[in-house]
């Protein structure tokens, strides 16, 4: 055993980084282990939308959590910039969730009504009104839900800012370390086994995204979770084509600094294959063009894919293993990992400190306990 | 003046490399100057088709030259491998020039008749016959002209093999050298001016592809030539989808080693902009899918663009400047630079040695003399 | 002629971008032409030090200009972030100019005396004092001049922020456009000739860095200027090794966000060759290790080279061509292009508007007029 | 269970590829599973030396095997080229194992005597004699053992040629598949569990290089094996600096096509970290310069690292698991994976077919059985 830590985090993506940052702020001595490079998987593949209202229904248990997490970004951006020097490129210009059919119009108008009822800002804008800020959007658009508070960040910069800030606060970070097993004693975690030796801690937090399942099987737990590939591409524009994020069924366009627009994302379940298919890109180009015809004239910059962790009921898992004290899990964020990363860091730190917090009960690990544990 | 050379070649692409190689074989002391890296522009952007019969009409003056150049490849491949160790990946499995409409069927059948009349091998195959070797081709294909002798090579490897072999035979090669002017005396070339000093030679050969025009303006010559951008992409396949090259109006698919297929190429005239447009790639994907639906399932590997030198009458320029003794030009190969590179090297070496060769008369520089020289 | 502009800028690096930004702010209609991609040469190769006091002697005419330019950065950083969303990563933690020999100690102490006399902040710190902020610096260091106001920025981000902000203010930007000639009438500029046609303007500003000379020769002017290659490398560190920039004779280390340290730079004159030599990197590693032994354990991230424009007397050229009205030049910034970019933009805009400004007189084009014009 | 195979190979590097190729030639239906991309780890990091005589002592059990494997390359190169179109760039110009001290002179002369006694070609050459083919080698070299039969190949091309040829012969290849467990029944393998489902076979071959251990732990076997990082770099030369491979204690230089020289390799045990350290590259540059001073003037092309599988006694493991019928292992090739790949493919195919072959007995898995199995 090399050393003793208050907590060991397995996974160096945006979730592991946020947890490390929060624990370090609370004075914990933390070790973060990553099997590859930091933020090399889904965290750097994300478009960085903070679509709390755009992505989630108001009656989804995740909705409140997502809204609160979204609200944490302005202060977090300053805090991370102060500590790490990294600007996470938070943009708070809002999002248009557009309708391309009368069914979608009805659906969005209903969504607005529900959200307004819950006290949230959202309104319906006609195509003419949208065009005041987005003159290049297509004629096919039949209006949009305008969500002024659904902003966006640079996913890669956010992930890096978390780990850099955590390191600055004393977290030990090791890349290219493979955690091959958990060590337990009398139903309690006591450490991990890795290819560079063992590390001791009474608290191990698994935050490995879609890869969490491989390690968790070692503990006898099989989460109802599976990988979902998402393919994206980016273009570079000579002049700004968009001011706000455009979100539609099956395609989103997120305008970034430097004339870049990120277009995402396909959905292909049950694969860890990170290849970008011709079909995926072709479909995305078609959908993006339907929304913003002028995108055809831009430069294709690059294409990539990420593997997101989805769960059976669509909710993430936050909590302590019911049969293994000190083993914590934070995964299953699917397409909302960037959005949920701030609150996840705080929640897991609270859970680890045994602070009562009813908010995370819908995300308990034992919610599907019968099929879950053998 | 740093040194005295039998010839100075301006341009380190496949044409400059072939000329350097031929001159070195004839015992000449040669200096090759390239403004960037060797083969960094159109030469490495090409798909490497040797489409003498597929690309050219039998009555085109280029046709005979192209056929002879194509015939040089098998011996050249061995020679370059012996000298440089580089395999140019010559494949001689033939090409299908496919018809997608009844007009194209008629056109191709006529083309076959003409080529057979000229003693060339070409035949019409029905879709059922094509499918014996290419079972994955689309139903939309209405038959094809089969050209058994139109092979293909790796364009990048060919270019590199020329310059490596030339270097092995004593050619001096300098990259990142900008030739800013020609030096002349009494209507004769005596050298070049570059950013690293002057170099003396009574023979200067401009083989700069689409960039040749910039230097030639210095000599008072304005070729009827212009750049044409071509965009391409490549995919990687798990299993072979094609055996032979598929050529259609507006799209070709060239199967390479390692499961790679190169798909090309768009045509955009009058630009040196090397950006890959979303529109260009989208169009190519659409056309490729029309020919080979299974390509949709492959992995998009990369996208790129090259700038090819086209001319007013579609014929390249080979020859000595009519008003400037010792200034030779070899450009305007458009989409046939790889195919024509072997014969171009020999032709220019012959011209430089003042060996009579009527073959190149259609490509004389003074063929459009009135508008050409002011 | 395609269009009429108040000014045409040739060169899309940090200098051209700054000029475009300042002219746009003054309401000018500007066209910026770049032969490659924006900021693809020296501007993105720079380490981004703002070494006004570290790089220049107090009696150098450039000193005042450099100090004033350095002082513009805080406000500029905010302005560019507001317009373009791009954070230029300005760090104002100061610089240590270290001494490795007693000669250097004497030299630096003298430099401090002169600068203090000129009212500038600079002080001598012993090695023990330096170690309070930089505990990992080598024993070989014999003290340092501490310059609290010599900060640093991200060179690439600054360049991009200038052009993005310029575009947002209405500047037309075209990449991959080759300006082959100037058009003049009666000794006055009237436009430029490019490969995509001509563009009209009574003001043409050449800001092409080391490449400026090629175009200027067209105007009959030969600046006393030459290219100087500088090679650099960057490393990635697990934990911060440095807080401040370390500057020594022949080597500097600039700590960037994300655990990156940029180490530069070699000096090789009279070449446009952008290759990184083994010798160059080997020398830099040796020098960096002499300053900061712990750097040996870091990860080598990448290596690169840039071509900086140096001049005969070491001063940049700012001004109007004495024999060609409307032709302006801004080049020769050598290693201070990033530092001088803010003031250069303002100066050139002033000169173009014929505002009297004696500050730029030492940088007049005609200062070496006899040898300059033939 | 998705399908039934004669054999499942876990690992898509040069070893897995060679085994797949040999089994396919024997008519087996094979599935090859790779957790990342094919040949993405040590197989593409190797310099491709075939140093049977240079790397191994004549009394090493591996020596005979290595010599036989080396002898298979000429025929294999043709066979792979015929099937896959890929030239593996086999060069048979021999190797100089150089001495830099009088101790090394004595050691090499002894090595020659032993090898000659075993009927192998090897001779001592003085520095003057070496210089006839390698005029640029350093004065510090005190002579060399010349090994005419130790050639070299392109490691990446060999790996790819194996898998492409295997695919052409019907092997199913799946990338990005994580094998999480073995399935056994009554002490016999019946298949594997992966993230994309299970696959059935009575024969599972683990050929995962340094990563093999992670899977093997599942079978209750702990091989005496560990990862060893090796860092390399490559340079590009304008003219050939070397004809033959130069091998010394701690550094080798392998001249490749296209003017490339690969310089390797550092040795750092017990890490899967694939980062290239500044220290590693600095050390290699120093050693390479000591052998070939002219290398200082070349262009640094790139740097990389690979993770090689070493074993406790330095011998690879070939064989069937003693307690698990149908589980075969082929790992531990350390720095000789490329050299040994041809014979490993044949050996494992023989073992799987239960063909008696005493040659592999020194490489049995149970050679260190007491500590090995718990």
UniProtKB/TrEMBL annotation, chains A, B, C, D:
GO terms for cellular component: cytoplasm. Transmembrane segments: none annotated. It is an enzyme of class 1 (oxidoreductase). It catalyses: glycine + O2 + H2O = glyoxylate + H2O2 + NH4(+). One of its GO terms (biological process) is thiamine biosynthetic process. Keywords: Oxidoreductase, Thiamine biosynthesis. Residues 6-350 form the FAD dependent oxidoreductase domain. Pathway: Cofactor biosynthesis; thiamine diphosphate biosynthesis. GO terms for molecular function: flavin adenine dinucleotide binding; glycine oxidase activity. This is glycine oxidase. It comes from Peribacillus simplex.
